[in-house]
Amino acid sequence: MSDTGQSISSQLSLDELMAQYRRLQSYVGWTEEDPRRLRSLRGVAERLLPELVDDFYREIQNHPEALRVITGGPEQIARLKRTLKLWLRELFSGVYDAQYVSRHWQAGLRHVEIGLPSVYTHVALARLRQGLLTGLQEAWPGDSVELLESLPALNRLLDLDLAIIDCAYQAETVARERRAERLAEVAEFGRRAFLDDQVERLICKACRRAALALHGDVGSAWELSPVGDQFVARCIERMSDQMPPSAQAGNVGSVTSDASTCPGFAVRASTALAVADFASKPRFQANSFQLEMESRACLCVAIPGSLRPFGVLQIDFRRPKSFSESDSTFLQSIANVLGAVLSRQQMEERTRQTERLAAIGQMVTGLVHESRNALQRSQACLEMLTFEVAGQERAIDLIDRILTAQKHLHHLFEEVRGYAAPISVKRVPCDLRAIWRATWSHLESNRQGKSIHLVEMVTSEHTDCVADPNSLEQVFRNVFDNAIHACPEVGRVTISCELLNVLEVPTYRIRIRDNGPGLSLDQHYRLFEPFFTTKTHGTGLGMPIARRIMQAHGGSITATERFEPGSGAEFVVTLPHGSESISLS
């Protein structure tokens, strides 16, 4: 777990532990003179340590329940003796700072980890205490008054050490119980998740469950955009009525995927990110959403997907928060379940789509076969009829219209069959600039009667890639044709191209913008629906086919949200470079 807060255990931060230690010092009557008095005992105590340590481990041999945690034989006992000697020596150092407390706390945690019953820590410390007190009294060479003044300080210090060890036992016990509860929570969420076919409801359940379990103020899920440059809110669950009312997914636009943000770092590093306090750790900046929520701390993990991360699951806190490994493991487990369900649903949807397309393709193939003869017969009859009505302009005009309608019907059959057919991508080295220029040239007849120019704004040093040039030409043709249709008599179509590093993958981002009236809200959301069109003779399959082609390349095509009248329409095409030899700094 990446954590900007300093943590020494599953429950307490170092600052919290030190504050607790200070309170315990006050409780046992620790004085400013105690460190000096303990240092005065160091010389004599040092000579006692070898026999104390040997006696300690001889006695363990008589207690099978304590001995069973020592599984490494004589070598482990030798290591444990060295560790115990260091621990005893540190008692008389006179330095009892945060690092001292942390080391002795970790020693207590280690006892829990190896399964030593807490009762043995008490009797072990009592044996060491008795050995030290007896040995110091017997070996003390100086004034007994000084010794009598120093021994209470040693007792207070040993009482403090025992209290720290007890706290470690209690904290780890609570942590284990919490981990067990959270494992059960994840299992229950997973069981229910795979039975839930409502994606939005499932995402919101994950946000709420995680926020409740971690005592967070806001749980949110963010979807990585197709371009990979931002995250879009899918669900925001507020745990308090005191949160701003605008904290809803529909009211929050998007946040950048820059690595300085929590979602951006979590996705790029593929690890949980915990920020204990934004105010004291400027490396990770609170984004606009977190600033509005007055977030002080957050825990963020990636939601894995089949090809790339789906997005992130994030819990925000309106107060500084120390995070444990258990916290990040729990949230990542919820995200993993969510990612597995989303991937399964996406796969099932792709399977259903493939089956539907196969059925459509089979139906259209049969329809075309059966109707071809009828169309050919009707066309022959119409051509013969043309001779019969020679000189009758009205009749000839009607015949031409019928022939045009037949061509449109044949074109519709071919479009539907092309949409239903499997997309076969044959990748070869090619040049994007050359492809879009050739496509623009081929559409010269579509621009007749208009003065429309193509304006190139290419910032990339090169536009080469590994892709299917024929498929890409079809994508450019559909987008250019829509732009030409939307442009006024004097128009402009602008195409820009830049090479970006999207999640460590070199990717082209191509923007195509016209100066037409733009897209309405309804057109924007229905643009990629099969058979949706605003053209008189359109089939409504051009953009759905373009999307399938880009998905087959591992890229995407989207329409920018530009709903102001006269703003023009803009399409964004992303295309992985496709070559392993290219690198971006």
How would you describe this structure to a colleague?
The protein is α+β, with helices and mostly antiparallel strands and 585 residues long. It folds into 4 domains: 2-189, Globins (Globin-like); 199-348, Beta-Lactamase (2-Layer Sandwich), CATH 3.30.450.40; 352-420; 428-576, Heat Shock Protein 90. Helix content is 55%, strand content 15%. The chain has helices at 14-28, 34-40, 42-60, 64-67, 73-91, 98-113, 118-139, 144-193, 199-214, 262-269, 288-292, 325-388, 393-420, 432-442, 469-486, 521-526, 542-552, and strands at residues 2-3, 218-224, 230-238, 254-256, 273-275, 297-303, 311-317, 428-431, 451-458, 464-467, 490-502, 505-514, 556-559, 570-576. The longest helix has 64 residues, at 325-388.
Please, how many domains? 4
What sort of overall outline do the alpha carbons produce when their principal axes are compared? Answer: elongated
Strand order of the largest sheet: 1-5-6-7-2-3-4
Determine Rg (CA atoms, Å). Answer: 37 Å
**Helix and strand composition category:** alpha+beta
Question: What is the overall number of helices?
Answer: 17
- The strand count comes to 14
Strand content: 15-25%
Describe the secondary structure blueprint for this structure:
Layout: E1 2-3, H1 14-28, H2 34-40, H3 42-60, H4 64-67, H5 73-91, H6 98-113, H7 118-139, H8 144-193, H9 199-214, E2 218-224, E3 230-238, E4 254-256, H10 262-269, E5 273-275, H11 288-292, E6 297-303, E7 311-317, H12 325-388, H13 393-420, E8 428-431, H14 432-442, E9 451-458, E10 464-467, H15 469-486, E11 490-502, E12 505-514, H16 521-526, H17 542-552, E13 556-559, E14 570-576
Parallel strand pairs: 1-5, 9-11
Antiparallel strand pairs: 2-3, 2-7, 3-4, 5-6, 6-7, 8-10, 11-12, 12-14, 13-14
